[in-house]
């Protein structure tokens, strides 16, 4: 059995390009599907957030049209209710010692664009995990969290690494649109990441050694299964 740290944003809003506040949080499908897949495989999953705050689900992600139908929406709500005690008392990210974990999984939603991308505690964990060759698996907007990781020279720790992320096309045509304050794909590219995206809204996973990334919510199951494969190696 592996111990997996699931780092979830604690943000509940995103400041848009025009200065307005857009309600956000974590994307239900991404947390539910990855958590359930990893747990069902017999691994322990521990949720951590900045400050140990209870994370907020993006209500849009629970709408039937976003979830893939009413049945899936209802299933997501039930699962989140079932793990509410864990969500209500997450680990404090600053207190986490990575030595106790085999992998870091980072689901998205737009929340990471508010807090995780600049969280120094997350950055330290990611650098330690990467140095140790441990599995790091961000997906959708989760790769924004990678931006928190800088090496001793102040350089982006994942420069030159291959990964995928929620695309500009997906952001403009199904995300927060032209009012998006910044595009995760663009910033990762600017920092030196090698972005390998696929068709919009298709399940797509890229693995570069210990780094496993997924493009969008549709990639949640595939990311979790690739993490299981990596843990078994």
CATH topology: Rossmann fold
In total, how many beta strands?
A: 11
Number of domains: 1
Q: Which residues form runs of ≥5 with pLDDT under 50?
A: none
Terminal Cα span: 13 Å
The CATH homologous superfamily is called: Class I glutamine amidotransferase (GATase) domain
* Known CATH architecture: 3-Layer(aba) Sandwich
| Percentage of residues in helical conformation | 25-40%
Structural class: alpha/beta
SS summary, helix count? 8
Rg for CA atoms: 16 Å
If strands are numbered along the chain, what order do they take across the biggest sheet?
A: 5-4-1-6-7
CATH class: Alpha Beta
What's the order of the H and E elements?
Answer: EEEHEHHHEEHEEHHEEEH
Given the C-alpha coordinates, what overall shape results? globular
List keywords for this structure.
single chain, 233 residues, alpha/beta, Rossmann fold, 5-stranded parallel β-sheet, two-stranded antiparallel ribbon, 11 strands, 32% helix
